[in-house]
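Translate sequence into C-alpha cells.
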Amino acid sequence: MNDRILTILVTGANGQLGSELQVIASQFPYCQFLFAAKEELDITDYNSIIKYFSGHSIDYCINCAAYTAVDKAESEKEMAILLNADAVAILAKVCCTHNTQLIHISTDYVFDGTAKQPYTETDKTCPVGTYAISKLQGEELAIKHCPSTIIIRTSWLYSSFKNNFVKTMLRLMKEKDSINVVNDQQGCPTYAADLAVAIMHIIDSGISHENPGIYNYANAGITNWYEFALAIKNIAGSNCTVKPISTTEYPTPAKRPAYSVLDTTKIKKVFGITIPKWEDSLEECLKLLSIRVK
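Result follows.
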C-alpha cells in the first residue's frame, strides 16, 4: 500500500471500465479519484487538458475513453482517429509534462487474428479496419509522447454497465425463441470489473513506473462467441435456442479477428496478478445484473 494520497484521473468515467473503477474506488482510501466523463473533460481539446491538469496534481491517468463502435468507425473514420489516436497523443504529452503515469487501454484488434497461438505483447501487429488502425496509432503515440506509459490490451470486454455482448444476449434471449451466434471467432471474454481490479493492483504495486510498456489482460480460458452465448443462456436459465453460424453468414462492415486470444503471462509475472477464469467472472456479472434488474 502507498504511504501517501495518490490522485488518479479516470477519463471515459461512465463507460464499462470507468464505471467498474467507480464501484471499487472506496476500497482504496489512499487514492483520490477524479472521474471525468466526456461532459467534464474533452480529451480532444489540448487547452482543456492543460487547464485540468494544472488545477490538479495527478499521479496516474487511466484512459478509459475511446471510440468503440467498430463497424461505425468505417463511416466515421475521422472521429475514430480523433478519439483513439489524436486525443491519446494529447493526454500523453500532458501526462509527460506533469510527471503523470498514463495507463492506456487498448485492444486485441491491433492483431489481424490469423495466429494459431495466443498473442504476446511482442508479436507483430497488423490492424485491419479503421477502429483497429486508430487503436494501434493510439498505442504508438502514447509511448512516443510519454515513455512511462503502460498500455493494457484487452479483449471481448463486458460489464453489468453500458451496452455489451452479455447484455445484448440477455435481451435477445428474452425477446426471441431462437438466435444465431458466430462460432468461428475465438477469444477471451474479459469482465471489466476484473480489469479494474488489475489496474488498481498495478498502481498499488508501487513498481509501475519501473515497468512501463505493453501488457495483455483478459480472463483465463478460450472460447468462441457461440459458446459464450451458450454459457450466458445456461447461467441465466433461458429457454432460447442458440444456433451456431459462421462469420460468412453474419457479414459486418468491419472485419473481426478470427483468433484474438491474448497471452497474459507478462502481466501476471511482472505485477503478480491473479486472473479469474472467464466462466467464473461471467457468473459474477450475471448475478449483479439479476440484482440490478430486480
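Note: The chain has a mean pLDDT of 96.
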